Amino acid sequence: GFAGTQLTGLTATQLGLLTTTDALEFNSTQLGALTTTQFNALTTDAIGAFTATQARGLTVGQLAGLTSTSVNAFSTTALGGLTTTQARSFTSTQVAGINETAAAGFTSTQLGALTNTQLAAFTTTSFNAFTSTQVRGITSTQIVALTATQLGGLTTTDVDEFTSTQLRGLTSTQVGALGETNFSEFSATQVSGFAGTQLTGLTATQLGL
């Protein structure tokens, strides 16, 4: 196979011709030797063929330079296989470009390792695509970064999965943004975790439930 130093000499045109079969021939070290320009030249099919083991060979510098098209091309298995350090390397701009299919690939552990800025950068559509298991990974210190739009779009299933510890991280404004339907889904245990200052954000409709 090609050595890492040989791969750096391949042109964007040459890399764009690689098939999914070719892509699977790369080892993690070889992938780590590609420049971001070269990696972004790969077809979405080729990127989608990479395994979790191959993806873990990418450096944080490479990942931070990928286009949204390249990031979204990864399989959910490959994205979910990234280390927390790799996941934290995505810029807020990249995160904002992640579609709901790619968002589904993040594990709860990866989400819990993201910065507040990264977490807030997910579009409402992508954020609302998270499963209850993924939502459970968001820490109480991260939850304060969630936007009103993100919170307002959560499903009742997602809301049911929040622990009282997570909910204590919400601001009064965020509590109000949950809306009456989601707020009504909270169990007595979840509600008991709220502090008095948080409840000042409740809307008249929420209080009337």
Number of helices: 25
Shape: elongated
Order of helices and strands: HHHHHHHHHHHHHHHHHHHHHHHHH
Q: What distance separates the N and C termini?
A: 66 Å
Rg from C-alpha positions? 20 Å
Q: Structural class of the secondary elements? A: mainly alpha
On the 0 to 100 scale, the average pLDDT is 90
Largest sheet: none
Low-confidence stretches: none
How much strand content do the residues show? Answer: under 5%
Overall number of strands: 0
Q: What would your notes on this structure say?
A:
It is a single chain. The chain has 209 residues and is mainly α. It contains 25 helices and no strands. The longest helix has 6 residues, at 28-33. The N and C termini lie far apart (66 Å).
Walk me through the topology:
Elements (H helix, E strand, L loop, with lengths): L3 H4 L4 H4 L4 H4 L4 H6 L2 H6 L2 H6 L2 H4 L4 H5 L3 H6 L2 H5 L3 H4 L4 H5 L3 H4 L4 H6 L2 H6 L2 H4 L4 H4 L12 H5 L3 H5 L3 H4 L4 H6 L1 H6 L3 H5 L3 H4 L4 H4 L2
